[in-house]
Amino acid sequence: MNLPVLSASDFASDQDIRWCPGCGDYSILAQMKKVLPQLGVLPEKTVFISGIGCSSRFPYYMNTYGMHSIHGRAPAFATGLKSTRPDLSVWVITGDGDALSIGGNHFIHLLRRNLDVNIVLFNNRIYGLTKGQYSPTSLEGHVTKSTPMGSIDHPLNPLSVAIAAEATFVARSIDAHVKHLEMTLRRAAQHKGTSLVEVYQNCNVFNDGAMAYAQDRNQRPENTIELEHGKPLIFGKNRDKGIRLVGHCLEIVKTAEVPTDDLLIHDETSADPALHYMLSRLRYPEFPEPIGVLRNVTGVATYDEQINDQVVQARSKKGVGDLQQLFNSGDTWQVA
Questions:
Q1: Taking 70 as the threshold, does the pLDDT of residue 288 lie above it?
Q2: 47 and 88 Cβ atoms separated by less than 8 Å
Q3: Disulfide check for 47: which of 28, 65, 183, 275 has CB 3.0–4.6 Å away?
Q4: pTM, whole model, 2 decimals?
Q5: Helix (H, G, I), strand (E, B), or coil: what is residue 270?
Q6: Going from the N-terminus, what domains does the chain have, and what CATH number goes with each?
Q7: Left if phi > 0, otherwise alpha if psi is -120 to 50, otherwise beta: which for 194?
């Protein structure tokens, strides 16, 4: 089948985009529209499912199928859809509040099952839609409308949670780093299994500048480290700093003072998640925060493949089921 040549405009809906001027969501939407034409999947074979939050308006702005679902339950809808329609390209659009608070349980189980879907988690460390309450990723001490004396909660780390759940593809990007974001979304889409991309996204109304250390192009080289498979962990404006493993700890070194083979070589494909987990724990300002693909494990059976294999096996043994017969089988009672 020869697919038509698609462009970003083919994936843009006719709906007015209603995010605050300057919101980082615009950048994520723009990069998504750039990536989708590269995948060779028609708009009518693409589905976006969201929960509740500013990010969850996303399906309205895509000229694809979509669903604006229930708070935190987008993974459940995605599981049902992908399991019954494995031919579709399914994307879950969520936020730090939607995915990690009320949706935390669904988020974890989607990751561990390795359903062949893509999750894009917009993280601005605040509840934006409900006007500025602290979220599961807000930093300790953060003053918000719901924490006037500062948050006492320890923030949840989405990448650490994902790796602990043995997700097969885990990555992070930044709304303002558009080329990196495009590349990361494309790689996620090409992965067979559950892919998670956390995107640092600025809320310029309720949490402006929270990630300036990573978003600002002048600060980014010192405060983030771009991961490249098979290459040493080097960062800094002058590429003069690196990360090495000493015992069970990571430490920052000056590249001029240590041999190159002392530096940690990034292996995103390792089946052992230990080093991936250690990288996910690097937090500013003590360490540069990793961006790029932390983990990319292939060859793992997906949930949708396995459940459909079971359906085929059941039908080969018992034939096509009869729903009415099923209703009248087993323990039944007649109520007078």
A1: yes
A2: yes
A3: 65
A4: 0.95
A5: coil
A6: 8-220+270-277+286-303 (3.40.50.970)
A7: beta
